[in-house]
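I hope you will forgive my troubling you with a question about protein structure. The matter concerns a single protein, recorded as an amino acid sequence and a row of backbone structure tokens. Please examine both parts with care and let me know of anything in them that strikes you as inconsistent. Here, with my thanks, is the record as I have it:
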Amino acid sequence: MKAHGIDTTYQAVTELAQLLGAAGYRADSPVAKARRDLGALLIADGIHDTLYRSAGKHHASRPPVRTEIPQPASRSV
């Protein structure tokens, strides 16, 4: 979940910087700082296709969890 959240946020901030134009890429821009910080998290945490592939294999190989929904007791009237 953390990897997906950081990756999605990085993509959103990158698009925001593009919408802001040159102001979004200035060194003193809070958007540029957020983009740099999120990029560093992506690198530090190893968030890339290999991580998603291994997570997908892990979740796809496990059998699905089945939950039984309790049926209400029948009443005799």
